[in-house]
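Lab meeting prep.
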Amino acid sequence: MGEQNKPRREKGTGALYLRTREIPGEKDYEFYQAVLEVKTETGKRKRITGNGATKSLAQAKLQANINKFYQREAEGTVAVRRKKSSGMTVEEWLDAWYESLQYRRLSETVRRKYKGFYEHHIVPHVGDTPLADLHEDQLEELFGTTLVNKRKKINGVESDQPLLGNSARRNIYKTLNTALKRAVDKGLISRNPLALVQAPELKQDPDENVPSYAHIVLSLMKRMREDNYPDYCRFFFMLLGVRKAERVAISLTNIRGLKTKNPTLVISQQIARHADGSGWYIKPATKNGKDRMLPLPEIFVEALNDYLKVRTAWTKSPNWKPKREFEDLLFIHEDGSPITLNQDNTDWHKLLDHYGYPYFRSHLVRHVAATVLADQEPPVPFQVIQNMLGNGVAMTQYYARISAKQMKTPLTAYGETIADRVKKK
C-alpha cells in the first residue's frame, strides 16, 4: 500500500498534512492528518495524530485523541496498551470505502445513512484501531455491550431509554460488515473479523404489538378530526400506508381529479437530505424507484379539501416566501418552507403529548394500515395492497396477518375433524 505525503502547515494549528493512500482497484484516497507531540508524565514525548476528510475534521479528531490520551494516562492505562501494527486505521478505511460508494448505484440518502452509522457508532469505539488489528473480541463487545447500553439524552441528560433498537444495531452491523468484506476483497485484511460475531436479532419490539396499536391510532385520528387539529390531514395521510419521506414530499400535482368522482394520489417522489448535510431537496423517485397511484377514499378527500383552504390562505400572506423547488408541496409551513423529516417527528411527538398518548414511532402507523387492510372483509386484492405499501416490513406485516386470517377457517375445520376422531367412542 503506497502513501504520499504533501505537507501543509498552518500557523497556530500544528502540523497538518494532506496524505494519499493507494487502495488496490480504487481511486486513491486523500485525507488530512493533524499531528502534535505531547509530553507524558515520565517526560517522554509522544506523537498523536488525527485524520479527517477536511482540515477541520482532522484537527477535531486530533483534539479528541489528545483528550483520550491524557484520560488513559490519568487512569494509568497508557503503559500497558498493546502495541498495534502500523497501517490504515478502521476510520481511514471506512472513510475510503464511503468515498468509493459514489461510484456505485446508491442514492445520496443511503450513502448518508451508512456514513451516519459508522461515524456515530463505530468510529468512536474502534476507529483508531489499525484495520489489520481489528479483532472479533472488540466487535463482540461493540455490538453485544457498547451499543446496547447507549442511552438517549433528554435536555442534555442521559435517560434510561435505549438509544438504539434491535433494528438500528442490525443496520450498523450490516454497514460495517459490508465495508469489511470490501476490505477483504481489496487484500487490505485477510479475513472479516465480524464474520465471527453474531448479528443483532431482527425482532419486533415487544412494546410495538401492531394490532394492539390499531385502536390507539384510529382513536387519535378521530380526536384530531373532531378538534380540527392543524396537522390532522398530514398525519391522517399516514393511514394510506405511504412512507414518511414520501408523505411530506407530496406535491399539488400529485393529486389528480380532486373534483371528480375518482380522485387519486400519485406517490412519485420523496424528501431527502443533501449528502454534505447542507439542506433538503425533493428527490424525483420513490424508495424502490416505482411510482404508485392510490384512489383517494372520501374521508381522505374531505380532510384534503379542508386543509387546502388553509393552505390557500397562507399563499396570500406576505409571509409566504417558498423556494421555487418547494412551492408546489402539499404539506408545508405557513411561510412556504418544507416540512423536513426531523420536523415531522417533532410534530408527531407534540401531537401525542397534546392528547396524552404514550410515545410510539409514527412509522408504526404504516404497519397499522397494513393490519387494518388485512382485516378487511371481503379481502382487499393483493395488487391494491402492493400499490399502497410497496415493499418492506409493512408488506410483510400484511402477509403475516392475512395468512393467519386465511388459515383460520381450514384449521377450525381440521380441529373439528380431529375432535370427532379423538372423541368418537
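Slide two material, second protein:
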Amino acid sequence: MKNNKHYQSLLTGLMLIIIGISFGCKKDFLDAKPSTSIISPTSLSDFQQLIDNGNVNRSSSLPQLSCDDYYLINEAAWQASTPTERNAYLWSKDLFGGEVARSDWNSPYLSVFYANSVLNGLGSVTVNATNVNEYNDIKGQAYFIRAFAFFDLAKNFAPPYDQATETTDLGIPLRLSPNVNEIIQRSSVQQTYQQIINDLSSACQLLKGDVPVVSRNRASKPAAYALFARLYLSMRNYQKAEVYADSCLILYNQLINYNTVSKTSTTPFPKTNNENIFWAFAAVGYNNSLYNAPANLNVDTALLASYAPNDLRRNLYFITANGLTKEKRGYSGYGSPFTGLATDEIYLIKAECAARRQDVNSAMTYLNALLVNRFAKNTYVPYTAGTPNLILNTILQERRKELVWRDGLRWDDLRRLNKEGANITLKRILNGVTYSIPPNSPLYVFPIPDDEIILSGIKQNAR
C-alpha cells in the first residue's frame, strides 16, 4: 500500500527503541530508554518505559521559523540557512524546497504511533486492585500524548479553528491504530478537534492529580487541564479555556520568582523548574530556531524594547554578544525551544479570558500575580483598574513578552488573533525587498511534506 513504507519506518524505529540501541548516554528523562531486556512489551513497566523514551514529546519547529520573534541580519545569513529555513523565513509557498522526511510532520506522528501502541497493548494487561491506578495513569498518559501530538499537527498543517467552516476545512489524518498498513485520509477540522477533545477528556479521567516533579515529561491531570486551556484558547472558546485554566491552577499554580534565577547563566531554567507542568521541545534543530542560534540573527528589536528597565525577563531570556541579541535556553533546558506547558502560560490564559468577559478585577489579579515575580524586587507597580479592552491589550502585550521563543505559541496567537480582527501583518526585509504575510493568509497553514503526499495520497494544503 502507498503509505506502508512510511509507517513501517515508524515501526522499525519503535523496535529499535525496544531493544535499547538508539539512544545516547545521558541519564535524565530526555534520554530515557526502555530496558534492553524488552522484546515485546507486556508489563505496565514496559509500557511506561515506551512512553518515557526520548522520541515522545517532540513538536514541529516550523512555527518558530515563521513567526516574528527574530530577523536575519543580512542576505548572507539567509543564504547560509537550509532551504526550509529560508522559505519559512519569507513565507514561501514552496516551504520545504525539495527537502523530505521532515520531522516537523514525522515526529508528532511518531508520538502518535507510540501512544497507539501503548493503548493497543494495554488491552492484554490483566487489571486488578493492585495495579489499577498504575494502569489508568499509563493509559491516561497515552491519551494525553496523542492529543498533544494531534493538536501540534492541527495548529501547523490545518487551518485555524473556525466554527463557521469546521466541517469543510481539512484537518489532519487521525491515526488511532498502530497498524502500519492502514491508509488514513484527512479528517475535517471539526473531527480533528473533537478527537483531541475526546482524548483529553479520557486523559483527565485517568491521570494522577500531582505533577511528577522529577519526571515532568510524564503527563498529569494538571497537564491535561493546561492543554485543554491552550486548546480552547486556540479555538477562541474563551469560556471553556478559563474553566480549564482554573482547574489546572487549583491543582498546580507554582511560579518562579525571577529574582532567584541566575542572570549570567546561559541555561537559567532547568527542565525540572517549578513552572514546568509538562516538558516537551521542538523536534528539529534548525539553526535559526535554536536558543543562542549560531546563525546571524537578532531577536526582534521592537520586542526587546518593550521590556521595562526593571523587568528581569530582558536579561534572563536574552544574551547579547558581538552586537547580536539571541535567546538563552528557556524552559526546555535544552538547545531547542520549549513546546510544553507551564504555569505562566496558564496564568495569562486565565487573565485574558477574564478580561474578555469584562471581569477586570480577576484579570488584573492573575496578571499582577505573575508579573510581580518578573520584576526586580520592590520595583513592580501593579496594574490598577482600566477598561476591559485596555486590560486585554495589556495582557496580550505581556503574553508576547512572557512566552517568547515558546515554539508554536506566537504563531498560533497570530492565527487566532487575526481571526478576532487584530489585523496583524508580518513583514521581513531582505536585500531591499519587503516580504509580508497578511492576516488570515493561507500561508498560515504549512504544506504537508511532498513525500507524505506521494506515499499516502492525502490532499495537499492550498498555499
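Talking points for slide two:
Residues 115 and 142 are 5 Å apart (CA to CA).
Confidence is low (pLDDT under 50) at residues 1-27, 32-38.
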